[in-house]
Write a structure and sequence with these properties.
The protein is of the alpha/beta class. The chain contains ten helices and six strands, in the order βαααααβαβαβαβαβα. Helix 9 (195-201) links the parallel strand 5 (184-188) and strand 6. Helix 1 packs across helix 4. The two termini are 15 Å apart.
């Protein structure tokens, strides 16, 4: 193993301020198929899941036929919105500076997200952030979180000791993924997540401001 250090970031709600955009997308999909929106606690899970998995979890609120139609609607709508630039998913203020600092410090960085590969590529490109990340793991090339596969694949791809790897994410699913891969994690709440839930899930630290990100990582790795 090497002395390299690897930071694996979730995308939506961690790097990119995309929750509002995604909420509009899923609400449009339910309206499109004539289904009522699921309860808020189920809607909140959407940000951490691939949309196909989210619709499957809504099976008490939407028929199998509606699930197929809603998933296809979402797939087309997301691609169109992102490719045309009709909607952007900007990085949170301060994320670019944090990535620059981590890069200068010599950290390797990667992405572990339940977002599709095409959507991830467009989000990174629109934020001029592609070059920061040396390994990308998403729903098109890995089993989705909370499976540990994305993290384990990133570790294998980079040759980093698992003890020198940390996951940064805004959801309990992100923290559970890190736990399942037996690596440490930092929870972030700038997308509105509950800090206590992230702590209880096993995050080593939970931070509320992007300015805390680099110091939190340095304190662990």
């Amino acid at each position: 193993m090497t002395d390299l250090k690897l930071v694996l970031f979730d995308c939506d709600g961690t790097l990119a301020d995309s929750h509002g955009f995604l909420t509009n997308m899923v609400e449009s999909a339910f309206r499109h198929v004539g289904a009522d929106l699921p309860p808020p606690e189920l809607m909140r899970e959407f940000y951490s899941l691939h949309f196909d998995e989210f619709f499957r979890r809504c099976d008490k609120h939407i028929s199998p036929e509606q699930i197929v139609a809603a998933s296809e609607f979402m797939r087309v709508r997301l691609r169109t919105e992102r490719e045309t630039g009709a909607t952007t998913e900007p990085f949170y203020k301060g994320i670019h500076d944090a990535l620059e600092t981590l890069k200068a410090d010599g950290y390797l960085m990667g992405i572990v997200t339940n977002k599709g590969g095409h959507g991830l590529k467009l989000v990174l490109a629109s934020n001029k952030a592609t070059d920061y990340f040396i390994t990308l793991h998403h729903s098109d090339n890995s089993v989705t979180k909370p499976s540990p596969d994305m993290v384990l694949n990133a570790i294998e791809a980079t040759g980093v000791d698992p003890e020198k790897c940390i996951v940064v994410g805004d959801s309990v699913i992100d923290i559970s993924t890190a736990n399942n891969a037996r690596v440490r994690s930092i929870g972030v709440t700038w997308a509105g997540r509950d800090a206590e839930a992230l702590k209880n899930a096993g995050a080593v630290n939970v931070i509320a401001d992007v300015a805390e990100l680099v110091p939190a990582i340095r304190a662990i790795l």
